[in-house]
Amino acid sequence: MSGVSIQRISKSFGQTRVLRDVSLEVGPREFLTLLGPSGCGKSTLLRIIAGLEQADEGSIALGGQQVDGLLPRQRDVAMVFQSYALYPYMTVAENIGLPLLMRRTRAWQRLPLIRRLHPVARAAAGTIATDVRRAAEALQIAPYLERKPSQLSGGQRQRVALARAMVRNPRVFLMDEPLSNLDAKLRVSARAEIADLHRRAGVAFIYVTHDQAEAMTMSDRVGLMMDGEILQVAPPGEIYDEPAALRVAEFIGSPKINTLPGVVRADGGVAVPGGVLEGGSGLAAGTEVVAGIRPEHWILGMSGASGSLGALSGTVRHLENLGSDLFLYAESQGGGPLLTVRAAPETVRQVSPGTAVALKPRPGRVLLFDRSGQRLRARP
Amino acid sequence: MNGARTLPFAIFRHVVLAAGAVVMIAPFIWLLSLAVKPADEIFTTDIRLLPIRWDAERNFTEAFSKVPLHRYLLNGVIVTAAIFFLQVLVALPAAYALAKLRFGLSRPLFALVLLGLLIPGHVPAIPHYIMLSSAGLLNSYAALVLPSIISVFGIFWIRQFFRTVPDDLIHAARLDGLSEFSIVWRIMLPAAIPALTAFGILSVVFHWNEYFWPLLVVTSPDMATPALGTVYLRNTEAGTDYGPLMAGTAIITAPLVIAFLLAQRRFIEGMTLTGLKG
Amino acid sequence: MTATTLSLPVERTRRPSQSRAEAVAAYVLSAPAIICLFGILLLPTLATFVLSFTDWQFGAPTLRWIGLDNYVHLAGDRVFWKSLTNTVVYVAVVVPCSVLLGLGAALLIEAGTSGRAFYRAAFFLPVTATLIAMATVWEIMLHPSIGLINVLIEALGFSKQNWLKDPELALFALAGIGIWQALGLNMVLLLAGLKSIPRDLYEAAAIDGADGPWTRFVTVTLPMLGPALSFVLIISAIRSFQVFDTVAVLTEGGPNKATEVLLYTMYQEGFGFFRAGYGAAITVVFLVFVLLLTLIKARLAEKRVHYS
Fold this sequence. Notes:
A: Rossmann fold; six-stranded mixed beta sheet; about 30% strand; C: mainly alpha
């Protein structure tokens, strides 16, 4: 049984196309993160899966069932919102119990007096209370069941939202930036909690975020979205090491990847302003490329002696010492934007603004893209 | 505002405001004063606040025996409550649809609501009278209530309030299994309580005090609303015995004045909506 | 679920989707409002227009289309002109007085901290009180011989007046009651406006040398309060244009038409003399005036003036 199957979804709001022919398969127990800058269409895609928005074209299947014509409440999906969307005048228990109440009772059984007298309604109330308590205990919010959301801290509200989603065992969890309203410290512990929730729930999670740390730490796979398209879907390590496109490489990784325009030479080297890099073998001589080197993939030399194959020489302009890492910003002799280099913190004793350095990419770590931004597989 | 903190200014401020306040409250004080005085103390040019001989009991008993004051108050409660209840019943779902749902006639309908805001209540009075009269409904609760059950201002005001409710709350409700109707009564109604309180105060104060329309459709004392009732009471008075008249007037004015004094902030909030309503 | 791919075409028969369900719900939810809007407000308003072109009288079996005759008649009707003039005079007295006094009260209340709640309540009290009942109190206070006001005036050395029976005074006596009733509402609207003026503007003005009360008022308060002030002017104009209660109870348009106002004339013609068509024509004139004022208000509202 498949988890979520998204086929050729397109969506426009007026003149703007927010989703262009998006297809995606999510495994039945997979944690998939849609990562991308704001406005890339990831939230819209999530809302289309939930049934809150309607796709112009394409179709969605959940657990093997086509759901395109179904209302949100008929799809059996749970969603956690960025704002948590807790009902402000209901207690925590009522918030968590509402989805169960709507599923387990009929409208007439919820009428004020009948609710208390009718045996089915009373029995339902009992099982709901049990389930609510179990969910609350799992998320450690049981002491707050009788409070209103306004009396809770941000982290507690976020757990209530999670509890409301998990209490009815949906077949898919959708999460729309659920951590972005938390402070940095809470966000780290909440990441572990959501990963734990995923293990216990054993169903597909689709998680939307613009924060790559969240995407890299929790997901089985990351789908990188930009301008209404999914550029690449891959496990976190792969999307970092083997980006399918320059835009992917530039979005993932902090500080940003260094990019240098270059031309492939007959000997397999790549001529870039200020030097020649290795890594172009197998490509036709004269191919115009963009070479990408991540900041931690430079080998830093102190000599400043240029001419050695594969090295660029430059001058340190600026240093950022974070304690655990040292970032150097060096101006290449060939000009262009400053190159970012990650070095061991101890290096700080040897360099200062003005120091001449030689920069050489680690073997096999130069990523080549064609001028349109597509990845070139250059390895022999 | 340092300049304003000087002592002479503070004294000036209190003297002027206190004088103003006395003028504003004087009619209420005088009303109470006359309501407890015997006739001979009313017909004098001496100014005294408290009577020499208290005659409150006679005044109030006589007021109640002259006209069915309790009936006016009861009618006031029935009519204002029915109007407010029906106004909300009609306006709340429409306000939700206009604020949060996408449908083809959304814009034209809202344009009609704005058009309706331009029409003062007196304008359709003659056709209303004709319709109710031909339906044989004059001098009934229906006649007092029906013309007021649509409050375009209510629709407008609640819609504006609903626009501030985050869409995600409605999305969450849809995913939690609520139909659009359940969303209106379970999610939007409780969320709208502050807006409804303000609107309710405006509506109740307006219809409790309304004179024009009851004057047209009510023909017997048992259907009179409070405002009309004071006039009936006044008409029983040939112009000599003001005590009972003032006692009755005090009874009819009391509910709103007391409510205002108890919940000043809410009343001021509610009545300032008149600014938007016009 | 091996049959998934096979079952696709069958499940394509679409059940109601969110946007369809949303639209259907929207029409059902707004149906009562749409019916009431047309049935109670818009069509009857249209009917008033139509009636104003007929000679219909309440209870008459037939009606005749008489075109503009009612309006031609109005143009030559001395009572109507008197009524229109009186209404304009009433508005011209009540609006500036109630706004200026309301502004004064608001400024003085804001200028200090003590007694704020009391003064606000005292000035606001008449707004919620039943005007028709308080009018009776005013009548006794304005009584020619035993009225509180005459007694006080005489004590100050002036002569007593027959306020409500003197054609020269009656309209102004009613305007006085109108001011008393409207002042509090104007005050709280202006208080809201005053509160929304940022504190640091006063501090900036003080640094720039504008630190006297009058300079501060002219350089900061008045310009910042400008939109609110014009809004309040229009609102109180619309409200006082609809004056009816005090006239109907205290003077019945007299003495000698001295307090005849538009709504009262409409009431008299339409319901006193049962000339529905003629009453409708007066209503239309009334509506035109209120619409003019409301349109000005709408223009001001577009400039984003809010009070809630």
